[in-house]
């Protein structure tokens, strides 16, 4: 049997995305919109910009722009003038998105705990380290 780590990573990613989508649908969100809400929640004390979302999720500017436009249309985020640089627009969560914060963060923690539950501490640490290396070396 031939090893195919790329195929296994793709399958694992697809399974995780399906699990995220299954949770997100109850809020009329996509898994990616849910992940952006989670990301912005984690950094709510900082100004966050589209470029930060692009970097965090390793997505193109056009993809991030479309994602944020759809989130604006759903009333989940707003782009407002930066407090530090009037030429830039920070991305902030609306009251609607803030209502979802706790549930999303709880889901994210539970998902991480679920993954950790079938791996030893050493396996979990090795997986995290390995994924970090793959992301770093296989990136654009």
Automatic annotation (TrEMBL):
InterPro entries: ArsR-like_HTH, HTH_MarR-typ, WH-like_DNA-bd_sf, WH_DNA-bd_sf. Residues 2-136 form the HTH marR-type domain. SUPFAM superfamilies: Winged helix' DNA-binding domain. The keyword Transcription applies. SMART domains: HTH_MARR. GO terms for molecular function: DNA binding; DNA-binding transcription factor activity. CDD domains: HTH_ARSR. It comes from the Bacteria. Keywords: DNA-binding, Transcription, Transcription regulation. This is Transcriptional regulator. It comes from Apilactobacillus kunkeei.
């Amino acid at each position: 049997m031939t090893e195919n780590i790329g195929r296994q990573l793709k399958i694992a990613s697809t399974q995780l995305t399906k699990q995220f989508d299954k949770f997100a649908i109850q809020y009329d969100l996509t898994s990616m919109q849910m992940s952006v809400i989670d990301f912005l929640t984690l950094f709510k004390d900082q100004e966050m910009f589209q470029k930060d979302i692009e970097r965090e999720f390793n997505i193109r500017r056009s993809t991030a722009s479309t994602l944020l436009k759809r989130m604006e249309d759903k009333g989940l985020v707003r782009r407002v003038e930066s407090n530090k640089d009037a030429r830039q627009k920070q991305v902030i969560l609306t009251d609607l998105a803030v209502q979802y914060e706790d549930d999303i963060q709880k889901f994210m923690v539970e998902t991480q705990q679920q993954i950790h539950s079938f791996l030893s501490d050493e396996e979990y640490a090795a997986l995290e380290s390995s994924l970090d290396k793959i992301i770093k070396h296989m990136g654009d």
